[in-house]
């Protein structure tokens, strides 16, 4: 099938390549002309045969809103817009309603996989009407990991980004647990090789995981994380998860505490945040701050 893809950064660029490897045609647009296949959104839409599918991979908020607004004027009834960025689920409902007035479908898709997705595949959580999802299904199949798992039609519009938000909240708590354990091991004089303790956990333990593998990888690069500043950003999804928990009266003590720990990192050079920063860099290519 044909796909228009807007936003060709770290995630979008690799997604374009993976979809093309699966035999589909991808026409990409990016503000950076060195990355783009076309010079404008108008040209992108003009090169696609109807019914069109256009996937948006730009920052949440204003950039996504501006892009959806432009597509609403360029696309035709029967076309579908997919928001694969980290938008808030409440924005999805607004976008879907606005596009529906013009007969354009909307699917929201949470995408997880970071810089490793090109080779390993991307976990996909999408929401929307079944008919709209069906138009995008070949792309979902191309992006997902091999096997029976890794993709889900989570529900109606907003469900995909809500599921991805909860995924990221869990990710916050898991990283915080590894970071706290690492700091305690580093502080104990009895333990003389913290990195190898982490490595030993990679087989036969209940906490073995990809995050643990990435922690070991980070420690192999910098055994005591001495090169990193204990500072870690939050994408916003951790905050949204806690706010949703309040709205639904669901207790999230671990996820909430991990979010607050991120805030603490901006006040002091936190040892725990060195590990959080290292993990975010390893799985997602997120920026780190050096001393």
Automatic annotation (TrEMBL):
<dbReference type="GO" id="GO:0006098">
    <property type="term" value="P:pentose-phosphate shunt"/>
</dbReference>
<dbReference type="InterPro" id="IPR008927">
    <property type="entry name" value="6-PGluconate_DH-like_C_sf"/>
</dbReference>
<keyword id="KW-0560">Oxidoreductase</keyword>
<dbReference type="Pfam" id="PF00393">
    <property type="entry name" value="6PGD"/>
</dbReference>
<dbReference type="InterPro" id="IPR006184">
    <property type="entry name" value="6PGdom_BS"/>
</dbReference>
<comment type="similarity">
    <text>Belongs to the HIBADH-related family.</text>
</comment>
<dbReference type="Pfam" id="PF03446">
    <property type="entry name" value="NAD_binding_2"/>
</dbReference>
<dbReference type="InterPro" id="IPR006115">
    <property type="entry name" value="6PGDH_NADP-bd"/>
</dbReference>
<dbReference type="InterPro" id="IPR036291">
    <property type="entry name" value="NAD(P)-bd_dom_sf"/>
</dbReference>
<dbReference type="InterPro" id="IPR006114">
    <property type="entry name" value="6PGDH_C"/>
</dbReference>
<protein>
    <submittedName>
        <fullName>6-phosphogluconate dehydrogenase</fullName>
        <ecNumber>1.1.1.343</ecNumber>
        <ecNumber>1.1.1.44</ecNumber>
    </submittedName>
</protein>
<dbReference type="InterPro" id="IPR006183">
    <property type="entry name" value="Pgluconate_DH"/>
</dbReference>
<keyword id="KW-0311">Gluconate utilization</keyword>
<dbReference type="InterPro" id="IPR004849">
    <property type="entry name" value="6DGDH_YqeC"/>
</dbReference>
<dbReference type="InterPro" id="IPR015815">
    <property type="entry name" value="HIBADH-related"/>
</dbReference>
<dbReference type="GO" id="GO:0050661">
    <property type="term" value="F:NADP binding"/>
</dbReference>
<feature type="active site">
    <location>
        <position position="164"/>
    </location>
</feature>
<dbReference type="InterPro" id="IPR013328">
    <property type="entry name" value="6PGD_dom2"/>
</dbReference>
<dbReference type="GO" id="GO:0019521">
    <property type="term" value="P:D-gluconate metabolic process"/>
</dbReference>
<feature type="domain" description="6-phosphogluconate dehydrogenase C-terminal">
    <location>
        <begin position="160"/>
        <end position="287"/>
    </location>
</feature>
<dbReference type="GO" id="GO:0004616">
    <property type="term" value="F:phosphogluconate dehydrogenase (decarboxylating) activity"/>
</dbReference>
<comment type="similarity">
    <text>Belongs to the 6-phosphogluconate dehydrogenase family.</text>
</comment>
